[in-house]
Structures are given as structure tokens and as C-alpha cells.
Amino acid sequence: MTTAAQRSGAPEHGPHRPPGVVVLGASGFVGSAVTAAFAGRPVRLRAVARRDSGPVLSPGSTAEVRRADLTDAGELAAAVEGADVIVHLVMHGGGWRAAESDPAARAANVGVMENLCGILRERRPGGTPPLVLYAGAASQVGLTGGRPVDGGERDRPHTAYDAHKLAAERILLDATADGVVRGVSLRLPTVFGHTGAPHGADRGVVSFMVRRALAGEPLTLWHDGSVKRDLVHVDDIARAFTAALGHGGELAGRHWPLGAGRGDALGEVCRTVAELVALRLGRDPVPVVSVEPPPTAPATDFDSVTIDSAAYRAVTGWRPEIGLRDALERTVAALAGTTTSD
């Protein structure tokens, strides 16, 4: 089923008509932030998701909002009709762990890309192929051994989720080689923050720890705290997608890892979270402790990740603008507000 609301007021006339941008998976955590970022650009925006709720936009911003089951090829075809730019942010709602056991995970993680490229292959009008921006994952590369990821590595996915992401990426890049689309895979780091969207809660490690600290619970690590993650605020990641506009020719046909290039030790991140929550609530910081990991924990949980995104920065000019402490303060403030209002 597809419905429409909040029609965009952007003009549709002549050769100077703004590009039509369709965001698939617009109600999710990253999707809601990306949709809000594109709403601030001179585009005709369509936000598509399987839920009824629309994205949270700034005053004066508008978008066409559609509800659709994007695993249904017919509804997907209608959703991307007339698009110049398609932003693919669809993933299975169960997260990365569900890919190990839920058969429906592949339909969302891989099947949507298969159908999308098939739809665009059948249409294949003359002129410039549509630009497809895909949210890949930096973890597709597999275990890094602590070495910085710069995009030149051989991919050896270690989990079913990363294998799904890599399969979808290869479908997109094959379609690019065939001239069907201009496909760009932006491999995302550990993204965190808060968007305020009804169904866009961040379920990642940082927000999980913030919620624990707000509840007065200890912050637990499955290691000694030295394991690193490349942490980037969701608003910076949203800007990375809008930064691709106008650079399709330079970006198409390959993957681009995104990151801050720091590699933040999770023990120090947890201690900062505990400190910020304590300052906000006026109480002592919760303890940060190491515990035994569960037997199901994958090896990637103990692999340090630092990402060198110099190549993407050179093409687009994008770089993260929100420092780690500032990003953590924003997340604590936002989640403290939602906890108070719940």
C-alpha cells in the first residue's frame, strides 16, 4: 500500500527543475536524519518507509511522504518512479544479529537492492542514469587487525549481516558497470546520536550505554576498554549523503568508507558518558566495569576499527564537524529528555 502526504512545494518546470530525491527507509535512525538533511537542499524530496509516521523536518521544509513495503517489487517500483537520486537506507528491522537466523533479513538487506536494480534495468531511459546512494557498512571488510580501513582492503565479511551488505553492494556496482545506475556505496562507521523521529531510535552501543547510565546502571564492557570504534554523529553522516550530490560521476562505481579517523577507545567513551550523565543529573558517575562476554559474541566485537575517509573528503569536501565530546553531550541531553518525558 502506498499513500502520500506533505506534498513538496518545489517547482517542476523546464531544464532547471530541482532533482527528484527518493529516500528509501526514511523513518529509521539514519534514514530520518538523511531525510531531514535533504529537506534543507533544493530538491524535490520523497520520503518512503513502511511506517505511517513521517520524518521530523525543520520548519519550512517539506517532503512527499509515502508508506510502502519496499520488499514488494511493485511498491518499490512506484516509490522510485521519476527519481533522479535514490538513497537506499533499507535494512531488516531486527538489526545485524537477526541476519544470522531470520530468513526475512535477506529480503530487506539484499532483496530490495536486487529488485531496485532490476526495476531500473527494465526502465533504462536515455540520458544520465539515476544516482543510487547506498548505506553500506565499514564492517563489510571483516576483521581489520587494528589497521586503518581506507577502502583498498579485500572484503572478508565475518558476519551474515556483513555478507548481506556486501552482496547488495556488488549488485549495485554490477548495475553501475552495465550503465543502469550510477551506484555509490557509502560504508558507514559506528553511527550514534538522536534524531527525535518516532521510529528512529538509535540501538547502537553509545546510546545503549547512555540509557544505562541514565537508569543508574553500571556500564559493562566485554573487554578491557581498549577496543576502538570510529564514532560519528548521525548528523555528520547525513551530511555525507547530501555531499554526494553533484559528484555522481566521480563517486560512482566503488565504495567509500566514512569515518572520523580517530578510533575512539570504548572504555574512555563509556567513562565520558558516565561523567556527562552524572553532571546532568547531579549524582556520582556510574561505574564502568569489564565482564565476561557471552559465547555468541562475534570476533568483530573485539576488533578495533579506525577509518580513513580521505578519498571521500577529497572528492566531496565532506568531513565530520561534530567533535566526540560534543556529540556525546548532545546524545545525553536528547536521551535524558526522552527519558524524562516517558
UniProtKB/TrEMBL annotation:
InterPro entries given for it? Epimerase_deHydtase, Lipid_A_modif_metabolic_enz, NAD(P)-bd_dom_sf
Asked if Transmembrane helix is a keyword of the record, the answer is yes
S-adenosyl-L-methionine keyword on record? no
Task: Enumerate the UniProt keywords alphabetically.
Answer: Membrane, Transmembrane, Transmembrane helix
- One Pfam family recorded for the sequence: Epimerase
Q: Where are the transmembrane segments?
A: 20-40
Where do the NAD-dependent epimerase/dehydratase domain residues begin and end?
21-256
Record-given protein name? NAD-dependent epimerase/dehydratase family protein
Q: Which organism is it from?
A: Streptomyces zhihengii
